[in-house]
Design goal:
By secondary structure, this protein is mainly alpha-helical.
């Protein structure tokens, strides 16, 4: 708990904003995850652009790297919107999302900590609390 308290303190001191997207898989149904990552990147990019426009600011996105084959198509939708002939639809975002390895980037490690220690348990409690088999739900 001390680690989480310190982490949240760091994020608050630097007025940090984190964006995330949660996908809930339906019990007993096959889940086609091929479109999850690119859809999430597109959605988060829209949210980030709106936030940047509201704050009259600019920024960039650093995504946790997977493999080159998976990375490139996942940001293609952002790249084509940013550099299209008709003009930049994402003016606040200074570059297409870039990739880093979480074991070598402190900010990606902090994001991993937030997701695994806060977002995942909160999402489980909010969306899956009625599933008796869900070991991740705990009112504590």
């Amino acid at each position: 708990m001390e680690l989480l308290s310190s982490l949240l303190g760091i994020l608050e001191r630097h007025d940090t904003r984190l964006l995330a997207r949660v996908w809930i898989k339906e019990e007993g149904l096959a889940f086609n995850e091929s479109g999850v990552y690119p859809t999430s990147v597109g959605s988060l990019t829209e949210t980030f652009q709106a936030q940047l426009a509201h704050e009259h600011s600019r920024g960039m996105m650093v995504l946790d790297s997977r493999t080159k084959v998976k990375n490139a198509p996942d940001v293609h939708c952002v790249t084509t919107r940013k550099y299209r002939t008709g003009g930049d639809g994402l003016r606040g975002i200074i570059e297409s999302p870039v990739f880093g390895h979480s074991d070598t980037h402190t900010l990606l490690q902090l994001a991993d900590l937030v997701v695994s220690s806060l977002l995942f348990p909160i999402a489980c409690h909010a969306y899956l609390n009625d599933l008796t088999w869900n070991v991740h739900c705990d009112n504590a």
